[in-house]
Design goal:
heterodimer, A: alpha+beta, six-stranded antiparallel β-sheet, four-stranded antiparallel β-sheet, 53% helix, B: 6 helices
C-alpha cells in the first residue's frame, strides 16, 4: 500500500493553491479523483476522454481527468507525491533518532537515581526487555579475582541461566572475552554454544565496557528462534553504553561502603579497647586515692599491730 | 465523520515528529492537521472541530494557555480534548492549566509510544 493517500496530499494548502492557480492560468477544466472514483478537486463534469494516472513508484493513487493539458497536472501531482514520500521517509528517520535520544535521556535519569548495584543493573535489564522481544535475559559481571562471570540479575524461566561461567566459556563467555557485541539467531548451530546456552535459541549480547575494561555482559534472548536485527543490537548497545559506567560507579560505591564499614568496625574495637584501658586507669587511680590517705595508713599500722599481737602469745 | 487531531507547535520539527508518531492513525481514518501558531490553531479549531489537540504552551504572540482558554471558556468547546505540551524542567502551572480547562499535560521530549497511546485512548481507537 502506498505511503500516502491522494486525499491527504490534496489537503495541503500550498499544493492545492498551486494546482488551482495552474488550472486557472491554463484555462482548463479538470477533475482529480482517487482510485475509488471519488472527486477530490476540480470539476466532476470535466471531459473524461483523457485520463492520466497519478502514480507513486508503481502504484496508482488516482486520476486527473480532462483534456490533453490534464497530463501536466498529473505530472505535477506525481512530483508532489514523490516529494511527500521523501519527506515521510526523512520524518521516519528523525522519529527513530528522537526515540533514541529519548531512550538515552530516560535511561540516564533512571540509572543516575541510584548507586546501588542491583538497582542499576535492574534498570538496564528492564529497559532492554521492554524494547527488545525476549523471554530471557541476564546481566553478568566479571569477578576480577577469579575471572568468572557471575550472575547479578536475570529474568525468564531458564534456571540454567543462573549459573556462573568462566570467561571464554560458551557464547556469552566468548563475547565477554572478545569485548565485541553479537547477534546469534541460531544458537544451536553456533560452535561455541555451551550446554546452558542451548536453552535459548536466539540471542543478542553486548559487553558492558568502560574506558578501561569490560566489566561484564548483558544479553537478551528468546527460547524460540527469532531474528534479531542490527536495530536490536544497536538498542542493546545503547543501553549497555549507559549502564556500564553506572555499574562501575555502583561497584566503586559498594567497595567504598565496605571499606567504610570495616573502618567503622575497627574504630569501634579501638574505642572499646580504649574504654577498657581508661576504666582500668580510673580504677587504679581510685585505689591510689584510697590507699594514699592517713586513715588507710593508720588501718595498715593497726593491722600490723594485730598480726604481731597474735604472734606474741604463742611465743 | 472522521476523527481529527490538531497538532499545534511553533517548532516545525516537533509538528513533524508528532505527525510521524500518529501517522498510523491515518489508516484508521484519523485526519491529522497542523498549525504553527495560536491564531491559526484557533481558526482551524473553529472550522475543523478536532476531537483532540496537542497544544504547545510556549508559543510567541499567543501562547497555549490563551488558546486553551479561548477554546474552552470563550467558545465553550468543551468536547475538544486538549493536551498541553510543556518543556521538561519547566514547571507546568497546574493551577493555570485547570483554570483554562486543559485536560492533561505532557512534557517534551515526549515518549512517542505514550503519545500514540494517549491519542488512541482519547479517540476511542
Amino acid at each position: 500500500m502506498a505511503r500516502i493517500k491522494l486525499k491527504r496530499l490534496l489537503k495541503k494548502k500550498e499544493a492545492v493553491l498551486v494546482i488551482k492557480n495552474l488550472i486557472k492560468m491554463m484555462d482548463i477544466s479538470i477533475g482529480i479523483k482517487d482510485t475509488s472514483d471519488q472527486l477530490l478537486l476540480g470539476d466532476d463534469q470535466a471531459d473524461s476522454t483523457d485520463k492520466y494516472p497519478i502514480e507513486l513508484e508503481t502504484e496508482v493513487l488516482g486520476w486527473v481527468i480532462g483534456g490533453e493539458k490534464a497530463a501536466a497536472i498529473a505530472f505535477l501531482l506525481n512530483h508532489l507525491a514523490s516529494k511527500e514520500v521523501e519527506k515521510k521517509n526523512l520524518a521516519d528517520e528523525v522519529l527513530d533518532r528522537y526515540r533514541e535520544v529519548n531512550l538515552l535521556y530516560n535511561l540516564s535519569e533512571k540509572l543516575g537515581a541510584s548507586l546501588e548495584l542491583q538497582a542499576v543493573v535492574q534498570v538496564a535489564l528492564t529497559e532492554a526487555s521492554r524494547l527488545i522481544a525476549s523471554t530471557d535475559g541476564m546481566v553478568m559481571l566479571t569477578n576480577e579475582a577469579t575471572a568468572i562471570l557471575e550472575v547479578v540479575s536475570v529474568f525468564g524461566q531458564n534456571d540454567d541461566l543462573k549459573e556462573s561461567i568462566e570467561l571464554g566459556q560458551g557464547i556469552i563467555g566468548n563475547i565477554a572475552q572478545s569485548g565485541k557485541a553479537e547477534i546469534v539467531n541460531d544458537v544451536l548451530s553456533d560452535a561455541r554454544a555451551y550446554e546452558t546456552d542451548n536453552k535459548i535459541r536466539s540471542l543478542v549480547c553486548t559487553p558492558l565496557k568502560t574506558e578501561q575494561k569490560v566489566v561484564g555482559v548483558i544479553f537478551i534472548g528468546h527460547k524460540t528462534p527469532v531474528t534479531y536485527t542490527a536495530a536490536d543490537l544497536k538498542l542493546l548497545s545503547t543501553i549497555a553504553s549507559q549502564a556500564a559506567p553506572a555499574i562501575e560507579n555502583a561497584l566503586i560505591y559498594k567497595k567504598k561502603l565496605t571499606e567504610a564499614k570495616e573502618r567503622e568496625q575497627k574504630l569501634q574495637r579501638q574505642i572499646t579497647e580504649m574504654r577498657i584501658e581508661l576504666d582500668e586507669a580510673k580504677r587504679q587511680r581510685q585505689v591510689v586515692e584510697i590507699i594514699d590517705t592517713d586513715y588507710f595508713r593508720e588501718l595498715q599500722v593497726k593491722a600490723k599491730e594485730l598480726r604481731e599481737s597474735r604472734k606474741s602469745p604463742k611465743e | 465523520m472522521e476523527p481529527k487531531i490538531l497538532i499545534v507547535d511553533d517548532e516545525a520539527h516537533i509538528r513533524l515528529l508528532i505527525e510521524q508518531t500518529l501517522e498510523e492513525l491515518e489508516d484508521e481514518g484519523v485526519e491529522l492537521l497542523t498549525a504553527s501558531n495560536g491564531a491559526d490553531a484557533l481558526e482551524t479549531i473553529k472550522t475543523e472541530r478536532p476531537q483532540l489537540v496537542f497544544l504547545d504552551v510556549m508559543m510567541p504572540k499567543m501562547n497555549g494557555f490563551d488558546v486553551c482558554n479561548t477554546v474552552k471558556n470563550e467558545l465553550g468547546l468543551d468536547e475538544v480534548y486538549i493536551i498541553m505540551l510543556t518543556a521538561k524542567g519547566q514547571e507546568f502551572d497546574k493551577e493555570k492549566g485547570q483554570e483554562v480547562g486543559a485536560n492533561v499535560y505532557m512534557t517534551k521530549p515526549f515518549d512517542p509510544d505514550e503519545l500514540l497511546e494517549k491519542a488512541e485512548e482519547v479517540l476511542g481507537l
